[in-house]
Design brief:
The protein is 48% helix and 14% strand. The chain is an alpha+beta fold. It has five domains: 147 residues; 54 residues, no CATH class; 119 residues, no CATH class; 197 residues, Hypothetical protein af1432, CATH 1.10.3210; 118 residues, Isoleucyl-tRNA Synthetase, Domain 1 (Orthogonal Bundle).
């Protein structure tokens, strides 16, 4: 068994595509060879801008021969008067066998004719040649192209194909190329073909030719070099994972170099400069010890130049005009206040049926009376923040750099003398920007964020544009989860049903009848997702949400209490009792509240349960009012023994109607009390 290498070489691939393609090539090839019984060890993958490669250790040169058994007709149908029938002869012809090759086997349906044969194993070349077309077809490629007069399709024109098994060329063909044992090194440092002595020499031979094929090794080197250059500057590099991965996909031989720019550009918001450096030039920005942007950057070249200053100078020449454009936009925006952009929002469409962005902020402002008290936000500051929170959409910088939306608003609000609460709200009302991201940091920002997201939720849902598993164009999941997270994690006791109602009212019937319950159900689903992400089991979540809880903070408090209660000794008995009581009341169609009279009690165990209820109920009700749910569940647990004794010794459905209804009334009280925090009958008791 020898190692196998398959490499597809091509013109420069788009940034970020090589890794996914290489992974797929390696995993799919390993799966095919494993299925054929020719490889069992995990495959490695390699990728650069000019190649994708799969490397599989210990691959057999040929499949083992296999013993196969082909089933023919039933014996009764195979012979007539001792002679083979047409059915048998047809089977033998298809199997390439004779009458002398057949045997019979017993089956539940009788005796059947079979032929036992040996299937010769295929060679590695045959298996790979058969597998590669489908593997290439299923590569994660966004858009394929053709080149020259070739009928083949790939992401970029294919230049070479390498296939080596052990030290021998594997004779495979794909994409119009016949495989060889040669590959190509760095386009400039080592342009001549490289002959591989073996598959295992691939990485080392390429490294000699200035190509680091190992993706992780190349990434680690980039990080190390960037940090080293940054240290020379006395700064810390801004190393977003996405940027590192993108740079890694653009080079075969990384060389980090530092450059600089004029300090006058530092008056521009640093986020704008960083975005320009990252997205337009793939540069790493540098921050000083105070977190301020330094007039320097780090670029990663794909060549080891004898005159690196020339490369640095070229990069500095490229970044200056980009910064100059950004500075021009910044200077233009400084001529007017942020609030002066407000009229222009009337011409910015939010959504066809929901009007302009100005209309949206007008609706958001109508939620201030409800939200301000709950969040502890100043109503006047909140009104100002909402009126200008979208104004930066029409600024020159945001038109040029869309990701500066909100960030520019913060800078401009600070410049105009607004309070810190208002300035932060300009950016933070878009929070969280991703799963688990930061939440708004002050009450005004919270208010604007919740009002913004709620207006979007109600407006989009009001048109029936419900998110699906694959489509959520207005990011309603993220928006609604952001509201849920803010209320829970910042301990804001808000009834979202009132919030939804207020938002519906703000539309003044312009959307017709809005399905309020559907929106609340969507919010409940986000509470469910959040709770489960926090490690709360599904049955606990469902037990609480079955009560129709519309306060996310209250719902989480109940879930934590029920999760703790579920592990108690009383949980099984009370959960089963509540379920049993519910079934009894449902079967008897008890819809009204039944009265309970001590005079009608006959059995000692029903008297004991009634006494226990009279003793426990007041304290439970006080605890529920104070939202001391854990304490309330602990108090309810004291009902375990009297409830068990009642069901063991008391017959509920007696002939005497008054006694029967009295006992049903007692059970009704037990059911109501024990189901107040959650529907504990839904709990899946562990153990």
């Amino acid at each position: 068994m020898d190692d196998l290498l398959i490499e597809i070489g091509c013109e420069e691939l788009p940034a970020g595509s090589a890794v996914g393609m290489a992974k797929h090539l390696a995993s799919a090839l390993q799966a095919k060879l494993s299925e054929a019984g020719m490889a069992s060890q995990p495959a490695n993958y390699y990728g650069t801008p000019r190649r994708i490669a799969a490397y599989l250790p210990a691959v057999s040169a040929r499949q083992e021969d296999q013993s196969v058994e082909r089933k023919g007709p039933a014996k009764a149908a195979a012979f007539k008067d001792g002679e083979p029938t047409k059915a048998l002869l047809g089977f033998l012809k298809g199997a390439g066998a004779t009458v002398d090759d057949i045997t019979t086997v017993e089956t539940p349906k009788g005796e059947w004719v079979v032929v036992k044969q040996t299937k010769k194993g295929e060679s590695l070349a045959e298996v790979v040649n058969a597998a590669l077309p489908e593997i290439i077809k299923t590569l994660p490629v966004p858009k394929r192209m053709r080149w020259s007069d070739q009928p083949h399709e790939f992401l970029r024109p294919v230049v070479w194909l390498t296939a080596v098994h052990g030290s021998s060329v594997l004779p495979v063909s794909i994409l119009g190329m016949n495989a060889s044992n040669t590959t190509l090194g760095h386009r400039f440092h080592a342009p001549k073909p490289i002959t591989l002595s073996s598959a295992s020499s691939y990485v080392a031979e390429l490294k000699k030719a200035f190509v680091m094929a190992d993706i992780d090794e190349r990434k680690a080197l980039i990080i190390k070099q960037v940090q080293s250059v940054a240290k020379d500057f006395g700064g810390t590099p801004v190393m977003d994972d996405a940027l590192v991965d993108e740079v890694n996909s653009l080079v075969e031989w990384p060389v980090a170099l530092g450059g600089g720019f004029e300090e006058m550009y530092l008056e521009i918001p640093k986020e704008a400069l960083i975005q320009t450096m990252q997205e337009n030039q793939r540069y790493f920005a540098l921050l000083d010890n105070a977190g301020k942007l330094m007039p320097a950057f780090i670029t990663v070249a794909n060549i080891e130049s004898k005159n690196p200053a020339t490369i640095v100078d070229g990069n500095e020449r490229v970044i200056r005009p980009r910064f100059a454009d950004t500075k021009f936009f910044w200077d233009q925006d400084k001529k007017v206040k942020l609030s002066d952009h407000r009229p222009a929002l009337n011409d910015v469409l939010f959504q066809k049926k929901l009007g302009s962005v100005a209309d949206k902020t007008d609706r958001m402002a109508k939620l201030i009376p409800l939200l301000a008290d709950v969040l502890g936000a100043d109503a006047s500051e909140s009104a100002t923040a909402i009126s200008i929170c979208k104004c930066d959409l029409t600024t020159e910088i945001v038109k040029e750099l869309a990701k500066m939306q909100g960030i520019c608003g913060r800078y401009y609000a600070e410049r105009d003398g607004h309070s810190k609460n208002i300035s932060q709200a300009m950016e933070e009302h878009y929070f969280p920007k991703q799963a688990g991201g930061a939440l708004p940091s002050n009450p005004v920002a919270e208010l604007v964020a919740i009002a913004d997201k709620t207006d979007t939720l109600v407006g989009i849902y009001g048109q029936g544009l419900v998110p699906t598993g694959t489509k959520d164009p207005f990011a309603l999941r993220r928006a609604t989860l952001g509201v849920v997270r803010t209320l829970i994690e910042h301990e804001r006791d808000l009834d979202v049903s009132k919030l939804i109602d207020a938002s519906i009212d703000s539309y003044k019937g312009s959307l017709g009848d809005i399905d309020r319950d559907a929106i609340l159900g969507y919010v409940a689903d986000r509470i469910r997702s959040y709770a489960q992400d926090q490690g709360i089991d599904a049955d606990v979540v469902d037990a609480v949400l079955a009560k129709g809880i519309t306060h996310p903070l209250d719902a989480m408090a109940r879930m934590k209490a029920i999760a703790s209660f579920r592990d108690s000794s009383a949980a099984a008995s009370l959960s089963a009792a509540v379920k049993r009581i519910g079934n009894i009341l449902k079967k008897q169609d008890v819809q009204k509240t039944l009265t309970v009279s001590d005079a009608l009690f006959q059995e000692s165990d029903e008297k004991a349960l009634a006494a226990a209820m009279q003793q426990v109920s007041p304290s439970v009700k006080d605890q529920l009012s104070a939202r001391q749910y854990s304490e309330a569940m602990a108090s309810m647990s004291s009902l375990k023994e009297p409830v068990d004794a009642f069901f063991d010794n008391v017959m509920v459905m007696v002939d005497d109607e008054a006694v029967r209804d009295n006992r049903l009334g007692l059970l009704q009280q037990v059911h109501a009390l024990c189901s107040d925090v959650a529907d504990i009958s839904q709990l899946q008791i562990k153990g």
